[in-house]
Amino acid sequence: MNNIHLFLVFLKDVIKSRKVILELTKKDFTSRYLGSYLGILWAFISPAITILIFWFVFQVGFKTAAVGDFPYILWLMAGMIPWFFFGDSVSSAANSITDNGFLVKKVVFRVSVLPIVKIASALIIHLFFVAVLVSMFMIYGHTPDLYTLQVIYYLFASIVLLLGLSWITSSLIIFLKDLGQIVAMLLQFGFWMTPIFWTLKNVPAKYHTLLKINPAYYIVEGYRDSFINKIWFWEHYRLTAYFWLATAVIFVFGAVLFRKLRPHFADVL
Fold first, then answer.
1. pTM of whole model > 0.85?
2. Considering the chain, what is the average pLDDT of its residues?
3. Interatomic CA distance for residues 196 and 192, integer angstroms
C-alpha cells in the first residue's frame, strides 16, 4: 500500500508541473541545436538521411523486394520512425538528471519532470515524421483510413512505456555511471533485434516468442499494422495484454523507484 501511495503522489506532482514541462520542452528543443548554422533543422535532417541511407543499402544495394503491395521504402519508414522516437527518448532521458544537476539542488523544483521533457522534445520530431509518413503513403496512392488513426493508440503506448523506462534509467544512472554505456549498448542490440529491416517470416518459429518479449516489437509492428497490414490492435489480444502488463510494471516500478531515490540525488551530484 505504501508503494501505491508513493506512486499516486508522484503522478499528482507530475500533473501539477505540466506548465513547467511545456516551457522546459521548448527550451530543450531549441537549445539542442543552438549555435549550428541549420539550427533546429538538424533535428529533422539527421533522421531523414539515416532512412535514405538504409533505403539505399537495402533496396538499391541488396535489391530488397517490395513488401506485398507496398514499396520497400514505405515498409522501412513505418518501422524506423517509431524506433527513432523510442531510441532518442530512452538515450536522452537517461541522462536528463545528470545533465541538469543545477536544477536538482533546487528544493522547489520537481526533478521528475526532466525525463518527461526529453520525451516531449523527441515527440515534436516524431510527430513531424508521422506527418511525413502519411504524406509518403498518399504520394504512393495509399490514402489514410480508420486504421491510420490507430497510430494515436500506439503513440500513447510508447509514451507510457518510455516514461517508466526513463524514470528507472535516469535515477539509477546517478549512482551507476556505467549505466549510460549499458543503455547505449542495449539500444544498439534492440535496434537489430526489432523487426525494422526484417519480418518474423524470416525467423524460425521457435524464436518468435523470444523476439516478441521486446516491447519495441509491439510498437513497430503496431505502426505497420496501422499503415500497411490494416490490423486492429485488439486482434493481437495476447500480445496486447502482455505489452500492457509489462508496461504497467515498468511504469509503476519506475515511478516508485524515482520517488525513493530522489532525496539522494543532490548528495551524489
1. yes
2. 84
3. 7
* Domains held by the chain: number: 1
Place of cell 517490395: 66
pLDDT confidence of 156, banded at 50, 70, 90? very high
Which pLDDT score, from 0 to 100, does residue 43 have?
Answer: 65
CB 116 within 8 A of CB 97: no
Residues 6+ apart with CB under 8 A from 198: none
Which three three-digit cell numbers place residue 245? 502488463
How many whole angstroms separate alpha carbon 180 and alpha carbon 169? Answer: 8
Cell match 539500444: residue? 187
* Parent domain of 264: 2-268
- The DSSP secondary structure of 153-173, one letter per residue, reads HHHHHHHHHHHHHHHHHHHHT
What amino acid is encoded at 121 in this protein? S
Cell numbers that stand for 207 in this block: 524464436
Give the gyration radius of the chain's Cα atoms. Answer: 19
- Split at pLDDT 50, 70, 90, the class of 148 is very high
Report d(CA 200, CA 224) in Å as an integer.
13
